[in-house]
């Protein structure tokens, strides 16, 4: 793996993490402002940051703005944004809630402006994320060393990018256990204090690998046909504590990734868990994010 390729992965993956954090921050700030400007809005739109809800919120960023609008005008906009889902009844509900809102009128204009700006920033950042993820997709298509990782259904695009970036040239590891130790997924036993004898991860090394694999495990244990998920449930059924089982699956994922990068071979789910259901390789989109595919991770 060339130095340029590692640097490219690092730059794109780092920017993706930053933009993802920005999206979370904007969403949280919008939710907080909405609790002051129009707390009842979530009774109609469970997630005010979804495209339709956000577009309408930018037009009517407070209960006062919504209360003074004509029901027909709001209904027309809703029909324009999502004709199959929203219409006159939703508009009537919104206006009714606005008239009886417990919202604060303090700094109304400034807070409304803040909400609209945050909405614009959220949409812009999400659009940049989509563009960035396309660049990562194109990079992985030209990276012959990543073909094996792409054959693992549980590895989303961000997961593959972080593994590729953090592991770099896997030939520097003499064996998979060295890669496991590099990621801080090796086991250490407490030798003193109240926790003496307890087993835990060393957590030395690459934090990004641990975080992205944790999210991959959280996803896979919910998937019906995941070999890693089947391995997790097998460990739990045999009495392994759930947290310890998740750590074991994280290590297994890293060992599989190391072998695929080292040998360039295709993924075989039966090597993860002998009773695994073999399925056609496919990338999994990350929940709530644009397709990379798409945690993560």
Account of the 3D structure:
The model is unreliable at 278-297 (pLDDT under 50). The protein folds into two domains: 3-124, Helix Hairpins; 145-271, no CATH class. It is 59% helix and 2% strand. The protein has twelve helices and two strands, in the order H-H-H-H-H-H-H-H-H-E-E-H-H-H. The protein has a two-stranded antiparallel ribbon with strand order 1-2.
Low-confidence stretches: 278-297
Look at the helices and sheets and give the structural class: mainly alpha
Physical arrangement of strands within the biggest beta sheet: 1-2
Q: Distance N terminus to C terminus?
A: 22 Å
Estimate nothing, just give the exact number of structural domains: 2
- Order of secondary-structure elements: HHHHHHHHHEEHHH
Count of DSSP H/I helices: 12
Which range does the strand content fall in?
under 5%
**Beta strands, count:** 2
- How can the largest sheet be summarized? 2 strands, antiparallel
List the helices and strands and how they pair.
Blueprint: H1 3-37, H2 51-59, H3 63-67, H4 71-81, H5 88-99, H6 108-142, H7 147-150, H8 157-167, H9 176-182, E1 187-189, E2 199-201, H10 207-220, H11 227-237, H12 242-263
Antiparallel strand pairs: 1-2
Helix pairs in contact: 1-6, 1-8, 2-6, 4-5, 8-10, 9-12, 10-12, 11-12
């Amino acid at each position: 793996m060339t130095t340029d390729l590692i640097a490219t992965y690092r730059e794109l993956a780092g920017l993706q993490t930053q933009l993802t954090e920005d999206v979370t921050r904007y969403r949280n700030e919008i939710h907080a402002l909405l609790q002051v400007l129009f707390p009842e809005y979530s009774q109609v739109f469970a997630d005010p940051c979804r495209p339709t809800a956000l577009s309408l919120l930018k037009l009517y960023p407070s209960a006062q703005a919504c209360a003074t609008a004509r029901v027909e005008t709001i209904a027309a906009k809703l029909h324009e944004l999502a004709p199959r889902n929203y219409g006159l009844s939703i508009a009537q509900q919104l206006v009714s809630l606005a008239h009886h809102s417990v919202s604060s009128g303090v700094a109304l204009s400034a807070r409304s402006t803040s909400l609209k700006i945050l909405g614009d920033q959220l949409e812009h950042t999400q659009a940049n994320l989509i563009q960035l993820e396309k660049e990562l997709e194109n990079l992985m298509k030209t990276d012959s060393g990543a073909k094996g990782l792409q054959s693992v259904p549980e590895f989303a695009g961000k997961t593959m990018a972080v593994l590729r970036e953090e592991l770099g040239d896997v030939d520097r590891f003499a064996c998979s256990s060295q890669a496991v130790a590099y990621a801080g997924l090796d086991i250490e036993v407490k030798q003193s204090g109240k926790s003496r004898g307890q087993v835990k991860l060393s957590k030395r090394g690459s934090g990004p690998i641990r975080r992205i694999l944790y999210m991959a495990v959280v996803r896979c244990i919910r998937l019906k046909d995941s070999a890693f998920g089947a391995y997790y449930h097998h460990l739990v059924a045999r009495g392994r504590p759930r947290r310890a089982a998740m750590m074991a699956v994280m290590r297994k994922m890293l060992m599989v990734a190391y072998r695929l990068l080292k040998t360039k071979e295709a993924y075989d789910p039966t090597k993860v868990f002998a009773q695994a259901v073999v399925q056609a390789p496919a990338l999994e989109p990350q929940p709530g994010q644009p397709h990379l595919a798409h945690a993560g991770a």
